[in-house]
Design a protein that fits this description.
- It comes from Mesorhizobium tianshanense.
- This protein is of the alpha/beta class.
- It is built from 13 helices and ten strands.
- The strands form two sheets. The protein has a five-stranded parallel beta sheet, with helices on both faces. Strands 7-6-8-9-10 form a five-stranded parallel beta sheet, with helices on both faces.
- Helix 3 packs parallel to helix 7, helix 3 packs antiparallel against helix 10 and helix 9 packs across helix 13.
- It is globular and about 55 Å long.
- The protein binds fructose -6-phosphate (F6R).
- Fructose -6-phosphate binds next to helix 3 and helix 10.
- Fructose -6-phosphate (F6R) binds next to helix 3 and helix 10.
Length: 364
């Protein structure tokens, strides 16, 4: 049932404040009361963590890698499952491995899980479908509690995966003693803000998304740039746009721009820059200057602090509330998802059932 929405995808985008609140309720309790039990994985003892998944779930994992490394000082090996399973990675049996899958049935992810299990690693699964094969074969199951996701393009499952990964990374940091109790409290408070801030953003950005999507629907190619956790989010933005609007898009680390893709920049190529006012902001701005100097049209997605600090001439700047760094990927997902959705509407594509795609990929 789509309720008042035209598509399941739209409904699922707007459901995010509610489902994330639900997921966070579950995990924040676990962090506060029993950090050691956030897991069933002994984060204090493992030498490293492996993560594998496909598509959007993989990009959530990539953001998780930044968090586990930064907060829990845990080395993370990550790859798309179709590569991970064949790479013969020298993994320690003392390590743990996390597999992320909305459906819990993705063939390559399941094969990677079985490969790690064979090697003796402790297996965690971040899944939406708790009755799935991946959930059944894991030692520890971390439900994302997003409710059924019908739209083929993943939206609420992605942000719920992020919420769970953030909670696990904080739990791991607490267990490993790499953050102080005050820092844990501050991170948890930031996480708890997500539903409210998401609601506020969803209520306010509609008009500018509408206007920008009309522009994007006239383009053949779109480039997304970001640094830090905004880099995987840039790739997610590009993936979402191509899968439902069929417009070619690429997501790049902002610092890689000058190593090739800058050759593509001209006045026909919009560049969507994801840049909250974080540690990387100034560097990303200097990459934007390189784009502007070559006539590229910039759509900047930033926060209030970033908008005040950047003097650049952009085609448009979307200004989101300023939030703690750990939650910005969840908040910045919203304009990314809505831009893809509205652009697809202008293109007249079948948003919930894009051509050639299946919701659950059970063959290799
Ligand atoms: C993109 C998308 C896919 C899935 C991927 C993994 O919007 O939905 O990239 O994320 O096929 O699926 P799950 O999470 O079911 O393993």
């Amino acid at each position: 049932n789509k309720g008042n929405h035209r598509h399941f995808m739209e409904k699922e985008i707007y459901e995010q404040p509610e489902v994330i609140a639900h997921a966070l309720g579950h995990y924040i309790n676990m962090i506060e009361n029993r950090a050691d039990m956030v897991s069933g994985i002994d984060f204090a003892r493992i030498p490293s963590l492996a993560i594998s998944a496909c598509g959007t779930a993989y990009l959530a994992g990539l953001i998780g890698k930044y968090w586990f490394e930064r907060y829990a000082r845990l080395t993370v090996e990550i790859d798309v499952a179709s590569e991970f399973r064949y790479r013969e990675i020298p993994l320690s049996p003392q390590s743990a491995a996390l597999f992320i899958s909305q459906s819990g049935e993705t063939a390559d992810t399941l094969a990677s899980l079985r490969y790690c299990k064979e090697l003796g690693l402790k297996i965690g699964a971040i899944v939406n479908a708790c009755e799935s094969t991946i959930a059944r074969e894991a030692d520890a199951v971390f439900p994302i509690l997003a409710g059924p996701e019908i739209g083929v393009a993943s939206t609420k499952a992605f942000t719920c995966q992020l919420a769970v990964l953030a909670a696990l990374a904080i739990g791991a940091a607490k267990a490993r003693g790499t953050v102080t109790e005050d820092e844990v409290q501050a991170l948890v408070r930031s996480l708890a803000e997500v539903p409210r801030v998401m609601g506020k953003v969803l209520n306010s950005i509609q008009p500018e998304i509408e206007f920008l999507s009309r522009e994007l629907s006239k383009c053949r190619d779109v480039l997304y740039l970001g640094r830090g956790t905004s880099f995987p989010l840039a790739m997610e933005g590009a993936l979402k746009l191509k899968e439902i609007s069929y417009i070619h898009a690429e997501g790049y680390a902002a610092g890689e721009l000058k190593h090739g893709p800058i050759a593509l920049i001209d006045e026909n190529m919009p560049v969507i820059v994801i840049a909250p006012h974080d540690r990387f902001f100034d560097k990303t701005v200097s990459n934007m200057q390189e784009v502007a100097a070559r006539g590229g049209r910039i759509i900047l997605i930033t926060d209030e602090k970033g908008a005040a600090a950047s003097k650049l001439d952009t085609m448009h700047t979307i200004v989101l509330p300023t939030v703690d760094e750990i939650i910005s990927p969840m908040i910045f997902s919203l304009p990314i998802q809505l831009l893809a959705y509205r652009t697809a509407l202008f293109m007249g594509t079948d948003v919930d059932q894009p051509r050639n795609l299946a919701k659950s990929v059970t063959v290799e």
